Amino acid sequence: MMSSDSVNPLAIPPELEAEMTPAVHAFVEALLDRIAQLEKGPKTPQNSSLPPSTQHPHARPQPLKRKSKKKRGGQPGHEKHERPLIPTDQCDDVQPLRPTECRRCSEKLSGSDPKPLRHQVWELPEIKLMAFYRQSKRRTADFLGTLLGQPCCPALTVKIQNQVTAALRPSYEALAAELPTQEQLNIDETATKEENGKAWLWTFVAQMFTVFAVRATREATALGVFLGERFRGIVTCDRAKMYWQVGRLPWCRAHLKRDFQAIIDGGDGRAKHLGQRLRRATCELFEHWADYRAGRISRAALLRRMGPVRRKVERLLLRGTQSGSRNVRGTCRELYEHRQWLWTFLRHEGVEPTNNAGERSLRHAVIWRKLSFGTQSASGSRFVETMLTVIETCRQQRRNVFSFLTAAVEAHLTHQSAPSLLPRV
Length: 425
Prior knowledge:
By secondary structure, this protein is α+β, with helices and mostly antiparallel strands. It has a domain at 159-249 and 355-413. The chain is 45% helix and 7% strand. The chain contains 13 helices and four strands. The chain has helices at 14-17, 22-39, 137-147, 154-178, 221-227, 253-264, 269-293, 299-320, 326-337, 344-347, 356-372, 378-397, 401-413; strands at residues 184-194, 197-205, 210-215, 234-236. The protein has a four-stranded mixed β-sheet.
């Protein structure tokens, strides 16, 4: 007897399918797939690429607001905000500087100016704020004014931000120039905003450094800018098609595990059984890899254990190309036709079966994005990508972030060469 869950209620009856023209058959299949998509459960972080943070129990939809027609920034007639000077009797040290002659006409000067031009310099303790601890410009200014007694405004933090970007940019560009020479990279990307428009934050993770980049596109052109034609290494990534041009791809097994879970949750009984078997095989793969990483088995033993797993997975994918819904068949066909990318980590020692390195590097950036809602200008994006690069690279090299930032800014102000983040320097 045929079990009830093995019959797809949305399948085309054989007696009707035989009378359909190819065009009608394709149209009806598309409609049935659309109905199946509407009937199956919602996407979750367990069966899609949605980040775990989207599954917040108290999340509420954003209220609809009418977009203002006003330009960004201060409006005409608004009250001027500036940093006031504190009285001289509250300063720790006052150094009078009297010019001896006029800088315009070179006439000798004498006497005292009742209202001289004053310039104040604040000596601050070591502070790590905006980028490293993900503080906003307004809260950074509030911290300086409340705890340190230094009058500050968000506009001043923007000015300092641009100065820091200029100081760090040579170190950033030196790292970016090294990407094409790397033997293996983990690459990932996530959506962000720039000037309220959509942008993408890319991460390129090498063994000893990481480069971030904010770009307006997710297309393969962004890869060409950073990798160029000289790159001959391996790229660990998800199944996004813009990576296919690289050629040597280990597909992330964690992403594939979510794809198999999506097949299970799709509502098709036959496809559900297929997805469960593929998911079990993936769990078995991770168990063998964990034994290898922990030193409990040798690499030769790992390859022996993976042989049956590989044959099982490829046999199931081949079966999936001929059954199930259109989406299931498409997923299985893509995986089977590029099955060599499923096992790259077995052919190249040192390559991981997941893209965890790329996703971990984006974690700090994603939290910062949620707090700041993206950037408001191209210069803000340059600050974000530069600071994220310095922070993550210093973590990989076990270097003090603040010490490096201080050295870079001092070198910039004294017109010296910027310190390097290259591993060999």
